[in-house]
Amino acid sequence: MNHKQTVTIIDVAKRAKVSAGTVSNVLTGKRPVAEHTRKRIQAAIDELGYQPNLLARSLVNRTSNSLGVVASGLELYGPSRTLVGIERQANELGYSLLLSLLHDPETDEVDSVLDDLLARRVDGIIWAVHEMGRNRAWIVPDRLRVLPPVVFLTMESRPHATIVSTDNRAGASLAVCHLLEQGRRQIGIITGPIEWWEARERLAGWRSCLAAAGCNYSDNLVFAGDWTAASGERGFHHLLAQQPGIDAIFACNDQMALGVLRACHFAGRRVPDDLAVAGYDNMPEAAYLVPSLTSVRQHLADVGRMAVQELHQAVSSRSQGEVSPAYTRLITPELVIRESSRRL
Amino acid sequence: MNHKQTVTIIDVAKRAKVSAGTVSNVLTGKRPVAEHTRKRIQAAIDELGYQPNLLARSLVNRTSNSLGVVASGLELYGPSRTLVGIERQANELGYSLLLSLLHDPETDEVDSVLDDLLARRVDGIIWAVHEMGRNRAWIVPDRLRVLPPVVFLTMESRPHATIVSTDNRAGASLAVCHLLEQGRRQIGIITGPIEWWEARERLAGWRSCLAAAGCNYSDNLVFAGDWTAASGERGFHHLLAQQPGIDAIFACNDQMALGVLRACHFAGRRVPDDLAVAGYDNMPEAAYLVPSLTSVRQHLADVGRMAVQELHQAVSSRSQGEVSPAYTRLITPELVIRESSRRL
DNA sequence: TTGTAGGCGTTATCAA
DNA sequence: TTGATAACGCCTACAA
CA angle, B326 as apex, B321 and B327 as ends, to 5°? Predict the structure, then answer.
C-alpha cells in the first residue's frame, strides 16, 4: 500500500490524458501547447492541487534559483538593513534565499557553512560577514574556483573578488570635514575594534581629513571602542583626560555616540556648545536623541540590492560560459546634519 | 562532449572500485561498511573533491532538512532578534533556513510565498509575520492541512494553530503596575496601531492593571501611535492636552518612548520628576538614554529558539505518522527598571 | 559486507 | 503539437 499523498506531474498527466512532458510544457511555458489541452491540464492541476517539486526540477536543470546568504551580527541595525535589501532584490529576480549566520565571525565555521550551501546547489553566494581579524583568509582563487559566483560585502578591495561596499573612508571624511567647517579644531575619534576593516577605514578617513586641514591627529585623540554605547562612555572620559581641550568627537557608530551624549550630560558638558558629536549609521533613533545626532547614512539597503544585482549578473554570465571580471563597487554615504554638531 | 564537471557519487564509486550504494553507505552512515573500504572511499572523496547533492538526496528521502521562515519588519529590533534565535536553533538541529520577507504584511502575497516554500519541500514553516488587520485570515484548517507543520509567532491563540509568543498583556501589566507602585496615578498610554494584535494586547494589559487599582483608564489617556518616535512625540502632546494632570506615560515600544523623552525635554517636563516614562522592547539603547529608560524585555531570541524546537517536534511526529496537537506557548517578559520611572 | 536494480519528480531530446 | 525515453544524483530493498 503505497499511500501516495504527493501528487506528481504524472498524476496530472493521467488525469488530463496527456503525457508528463506536455504538462511540463504548460508549467514552464518553454514550448507551445495547444490552447484546449493547456486548459484541460490546468483544470487537472487545480483539481488535484498539484504543487511542482522544485527539488526535482533543480536536479535536472542544474540550477536551483536560490542564493546563499552568509551573515553575522544580524541583531545590529546595519546588517539587518542590508539583509532586507538583499531579500527584496532577490525576490524581484525570482531567487529564494538560504540564510546562514556565522555566530562567531572569527572562527572557522566557514567551511561547514559553505559546504552546506554547495550541497544545496545555490546559484550564488552573498558573503555579508564583516571583515575582522583573519576571517577572510579563506578567500583565495583556489577556493573560489570551486564555488558558485560570490559577492562580498564590506570588505577590503582585492583581486579575484567581487565586492560591494559603502565607502567608509569617505563617510568618515564627510563627518570630520563637517566638524572642521563648524569651527572645531580638536576632533577626537572613538573607533570600532581595530580588527574590523570598517573601523580601520573610518579611522583612516578621520586622519586624512585632519591631516589635509593641518590639524592634530595624534594618538591622544583616538580611542578604540567596541561599537557599544558603554564603550562610547569610556571613550569620552578617556579622550577628555588625554586631551582636555577637545571640542568634538566623531564616534564611529551611533551606539557609541549615544554613550558619548550620556557621558557628556553627566559630566556637565553641553552638546554641541562645549563639544560637538557625530555618529555613523544614522539609526532611526538618531533624529530623536537630545540633542539630535549628526550621523552618516550608508544606504545599506541599496548595498544589499546592488550585491544581488551583481551576483545575478555573474550567475547569468557563468551559465553562458562567460566569466565576469571581479571588481569593487563602492557606494558613497551621505552626511545627515543635526543638532549635535551645530556651529560654535 | 559531455563536459562533466560535477563529480557524483558514481565517480567516487569508480575511483574507489566499489558500487555507488557503498559510497552512499559511508556518506549516510546508515549501514555498516568495512573499515578498509570506507577508508578507500573517503580517500576517493577527498581526492575528487566530491560534494554530495542535497537536492537529489532530498528528492528520494522526501525531506529536505530545511525550514521556511516567513518574516516582516526585519529592520526593526524585535524581528531581527527573533530571527537570530531561529537561526541558531535551526542550525543546532541541522536545518537550513529558507527566508522570505513579506514586504507589505497586510496584502495577499501569502499564497505565492507559501507555494514557493512548498515547492522547495521545506519540512516546516515558521510564520513570523506580525498579526495585523486580516492578514491571518488564511489560517484555517483546510489550508493548514496541505502545509507542512507550521509554528506561528506572536499571534492570538486559536485552535488548530501552534503558537509561540511573548505575553504582551502581562508585559504591559508589569510596566503599568510598576508605575502605580511608584506612586503614579494618571498613567497614559501610547499604543501601536490598533490593527496590530500586539498593540491591542498591551493596551488590554494597561487597562486591566489600572482597573484593578481603581484608577482612571478613560480614552483621554490613550493615544494610538505607529511605533515611530515621531508618533511618540505627537502622543505626548496629545495626552498632555487631554489630561493635563498626567504623571506617567507607558509607550508601547522604546522608539515611541524616545519620542516622549524628547518632547518632554522641549516642553520643560522633567523625567521622571514631572512625568514617569516606560517603554517596551528593551533595546540596547534604552540603558543609555538620558534618563535611562525603564522597559519591558521580551526574550525574543528565546521565542525564536523555542519556535524552532516546537517545529522540530511537530516535524518529527508527523514523519512517524503521529499528529502533534496544536497549542499556544506564552513566554513571560520581564521588567527592567531604570531612571525614567524613579519613585516620586 | 557489498552489488544490482528501481525509483524519487522533473525536464530535454528525439521521433512521430 | 504531442509522446516516449533517457537522464539528473542519490538512496534502499533485495540479492549475493
Answer: 145
SS3 B101: strand
Which residues between 148 and 177 in chain A have a beta carbon less than 8 angstroms from any beta carbon of chain B? none
**Buried b vs exposed e over B132-167: b needs ≥16 C-beta within 10 Å?**
beebbeebeeeebeebbbbbbbbbeeeeebbbbbbb
Average pLDDT of each block of 10 consecutive residues along chain B (344 residues)?
A: 67 93 93 91 94 96 96 90 97 96 79 95 96 87 93 92 96 98 97 95 98 96 97 98 97 98 97 97 97 97 97 92 89 98 84
User: Is A54's CB within 8 Å of B288's CB?
Assistant: no
Q: What is the pLDDT of residue A2?
A: 32
pLDDT computed for residue B260 by the predictor? 98
Does A105 sit behind a cis peptide bond, omega within 30 degrees of 0 on the bond before it? no
For the segment A240-264, what is each residue's pLDDT rounded down to a tens digit? 999 999 999 999 999 999 999 999 9
**Helix H or strand E encompassing A80:** helix A77-92
Strand arrangement of the beta sheet that strand B124-128 belongs to: A328-331, A162-166, A150-153, A124-128, A66-71, A96-101, B96-101, B66-71, B124-128, B150-153, B162-166, B328-331
At A329, phi and psi to the nearest 5? -125, 120
Instruction: Name the residues contacting strand C (CB < 7 Å).
Output: A 2, 6, 8-10, 20-21, 23-24, 27-28, 30, 50-53, 56-57, 59-61; B 17-22, 25, 31-34, 36-38, 56, 59-60, 62
Q: Which residues of chain B from 86 to 145 reach within 8 Å of chain A, CB to CB?
A: 87-88, 91, 96-101, 103, 115-116, 118-121
Q: What is the pLDDT of residues B215-255, one digit of tens each?
A: 999 999 999 999 999 999 999 999 999 999 999 999 999 99
Tens of pLDDT, residue by residue over A152-206, are: 998 989 889 999 999 999 999 999 999 999 999 999 999 999 999 999 999 999 9
Distance, CA of A318 to CA of A326 (rounded, Å): 13
Q: Which three cell numbers stand for residue B158?
A: 486559536
DSSP 3-state assignment of A134? coil
Rounded CA gap, A191 and B35, in Å? 55
Q: Where are the beta strands (DSSP E) in chain B?
A: 66-71, 96-101, 124-128, 150-153, 162-166, 187-191, 222-224, 248-251, 276-278, 295-297, 328-331, 334-336
For residue A133, give the C-alpha cell: 581579524
Task: Give the nearest partner residue to B121 out of A55, A74, A99, using CB atoms.
Answer: A55
Q: Is the CB of A19 under 7 A from strand D?
A: yes
Residues contacting residue B280 through CB under 8 Å, at least 6 positions apart: B171, B172, B175, B202, B250, B251, B252, B253, B254, B257, B295, B296, B298
